[in-house]
Structures are given as structure tokens and as C-alpha cells.
Amino acid sequence: MTDLEARLERFETLAAECELISKLTVHGAKRELYSRLGVHYRELADDMRTVIALSAANTTPAVNGRDRPAAGAQSTH
Fold it and tell me: Where are the residues of the annotated region Disordered (predicted)?
């Protein structure tokens, strides 16, 4: 598991915990606080999913030395 995936899992866990606390508490101000925290952590998790998807899309396979021009070489095209 990568660091990004670990963070995503942590944000999802925090969101679920905040949502549960929000549902279980009887104090109105605490309910609102934990509800808002849950929404915030869900947004962070969504952002982290986007970052993971973008980093996966930008990952290119390693290219061996024969497939790329030498440093300083000029293109013949």
C-alpha cells in the first residue's frame, strides 16, 4: 500500500467515525460539528482518490536506453 492509499484509507475511516458520532450524539452542537467533520473528511478522501488516479495515469513504464535519444542528441525529424 502506498502512502497515498494509506491516507485515503485514513480519511475514509475518519469520515465514517465522524458520521457515526454525529448520528449517536444527542447534543445538537456536537452533532453539527461531527457531521461537518465527516463531510470534510469525505471531501479529502475524494481529493485523495483524484490524486491517486492522476498519479497512476502519469506513471509511464521504464524505457530502456535504446528507445530514447542520447543526452544532447539532436532529432533527425
Answer: 57-77
